[in-house]
Write a structure and sequence with these properties.
This protein is α/β, with parallel strands linked by helices. Helices cover 32% and strands 16% of the residues. The chain folds into two domains: 106 residues, 3-Layer(aba) Sandwich (Rossmann fold); 178 residues, NAD(P)-binding Rossmann-like Domain (Rossmann fold). The two termini are 27 Å apart. It binds glyoxylic acid. The site of glyoxylic acid (GLV) has 4 residues, from loops.
Length: 309
C-alpha cells in the first residue's frame, strides 16, 4: 500500500516515521513537486496545494490531519468520488475543552486581577462569582464543541449550544438552525465559536451577532479566523459592549506584527494551539480507517463536501 504525506509546516519526517511504524507494510513518502508523479493509494495531509490532487490519479481516500477540513475543501480540483476524511477527536476535543474552560475561568474568576495584584505583592480577595451571571454559549456541537459544552456545564455555568442540526446533550440547552440564533445569543454572555468554517459560517462573528450577547460579553474563538469580522470585534470592545476576547485563530496566521489585536488590552492571542493534532493518536486512527477501507468496511468521519464539514 502506498501513502503520500503532505504538510506545509515542514514537519514531514516524524509523520513519515509514525506512519511507517504504525503501518509497517506501507510505502510512505512526502509529496513534493519533484516526487509528484509517484502515485499513492492514500493521502495523509494538511492544507495541500492544488498540484497535489492534480498529480495523484488513483487515490482511494484522503485523510486530513486536523479537525477542520476548510484547507482541503477550498481547492476546486478534489478527486471526484474520493472520500475526504477528517480526524475524529483523536485527542483534540479534550484539549479544546481544557482551553475553553481555562479561558472562561481566567475571565470569570478574575485571575488577571490576581496576577496584577501579585506583581504588586497585594493580598486582596475578590467577591465570589455568581455563575448564573456568566451563561456560556457554544456555537458548533460536533465532537469538539460537544465536549467543550459538557466541560463548561460540569463547572455549573448555565450552558447553551447552537448548531445547524438538532443536538441533545445532557446539561446543555440546545438551539438549532439560523432561525434560533437570536434566541441563543440573547441568553449568552460568553460566546465560544467551535464551528467548522463553511460559506454559511464565514463572518458569523460580526457586529450583529456580538451586539445580541448579554452586556459585558466575552468572545472565545477556537475555530477559524475567518469566522470573525475583525473590525467588528474591535468596535464592540472599544464601545464597551464586549468586555474581552481570547482568540486562538486569526484571519492571517501568524498574526502580523503590526496587527492591532496584539496590543489591544482586552484581547488575548494564542498561536492556534487550542487543540494541537497529536501525531500518534491521529496515525492510529488513520491506520485503523485505512485497514477498514481495505477490508471493504465503512468508516466514520467522511466529510460531506457540499455541506463543508
Ligand atoms: C486545527 O485547526 C484543526 O482543524 O485541526
Amino acid at each position: 500500500m502506498k501513502i503520500v504525506f503532505y504538510s506545509p509546516e515542514g514537519n514531514a519526517q516524524p509523520w513519515l516515521e509514525e506512519i511507517g511504524t504504525t503501518i509497517p507494510l506501507a510505502e510512505v513518502w512526502e509529496w513534493t513537486p519533484t516526487s509528484a508523479d509517484r502515485q499513492a493509494d492514500y493521502a495523509v495531509l494538511w492544507a495541500p496545494p492544488m498540484e497535489l490532487f492534480a498529480s495523484q490519479q488513483r487515490l482511494k481516500a484522503v485523510f486530513n490531519i486536523g479537525a477542520g477540513v476548510d484547507g482541503v475543501l477550498k481547492l476546486n480540483n478534489l478527486p471526484p468520488g474520493v472520500p475526504i476524511v477528517r480526524l475524529n477527536d483523536a485527542g483534540m476535543a479534550v484539549q479544546m475543552a481544557e482551553y475553553v474552560c481555562y479561558t472562561l475561568i481566567r475571565h470569570t474568576r478574575n485571575f488577571d486581577i490576581y496576577e496584577s495584584h501579585a506583581r504588586n505583592r497585594e493580598w486582596k480577595r475578590q467577591p465570589p462569582i455568581d455563575r448564573t451571571a456568566f451563561p456560556v454559549g457554544v456555537m458548533g456541537l460536533g465532537n469538539i464543541g460537544a465536549r467543550v459544552a459538557q466541560a463548561v456545564a460540569a463547572f455549573e455555568y448555565p450552558t447553551f449550544g447552537w448548531s445547524c442540526s438538532e443536538k441533545t446533550l445532557p446539561g446543555v440547552t440546545s438551539f438549532a438552525g439560523p432561525e434560533s440564533m437570536d434566541a441563543f445569543l440573547s441568553g449568552v454572555r460568553v460566546l465560544v465559536c467551535a464551528l467548522p468554517l463553511t460559506s454559511a459560517t464565514e463572518g458569523i462573528l460580526n457586529a450583529g451577532t456580538l451586539a445580541k450577547l448579554q452586556p459585558n460579553g466575552y468572545l472565545i474563538n477556537v475555530a477559524r479566523g475567518r469566522h470573525l469580522i475583525e473590525n467588528d470585534l474591535l468596535a464592540a470592545l472599544d464601545n464597551g459592549s464586549l468586555a474581552g476576547a481570547t482568540l486562538d485563530v486569526c484571519r492571517e496566521e501568524p498574526l502580523p506584527d503590526i496587527h492591532p489585536f496584539w496590543s489591544h488590552p482586552k484581547i488575548t492571542i494564542t498561536p492556534h494551539i487550542s487543540a494541537i493534532t497529536l501525531r500518534a493518536e491521529s496515525v492510529v486512527q488513520i491506520a485503523d480507517k485505512i485497514h477498514a477501507l481495505e477490508r471493504g468496511e465503512a468508516i466514520d468521519g467522511i466529510v460531506e463536501t457540499a455541506r463543508g464539514y
